[in-house]
Specification:
- The chain is mainly alpha-helical.
- The protein has one domain.
- Helices cover about 75% and strands about 0% of the residues.
- The chain contains four helices and no strands.
- It starts with a helix and ends with a helix.
- GO terms for molecular function: NADH dehydrogenase (ubiquinone) activity.
- It is found in: Mitochondrion inner membrane.
- Belongs to the complex I subunit 2 family.
């Protein structure tokens, strides 16, 4: 696309921001989601972490 050719730095930063909002592992959005999923599974609340993980996958799309 034309955006990458004109402003590759801004395009890269937008991509990084979107991946962080999606909660991919090396980025800051992943740690809070992971901690919530761990605590819910420790309390044997299986349905909530499953729904959280599925909605996180939908957010990436």
């Amino acid at each position: 696309s034309q955006t990458w050719n004109k402003t590759p730095l801004i395009t890269s930063l937008i991509l990084l921001l979107m991946m962080s909002l999606g909660g991919l592992p090396p980025l800051s959005g992943f740690i809070p989601k992971w901690m919530i999923i761990q605590e819910l599974t420790k309390n044997e609340m299986i349905m909530m972490p499953t729904l959280l993980a599925m909605t996180a996958l939908l957010n990436l799309y």
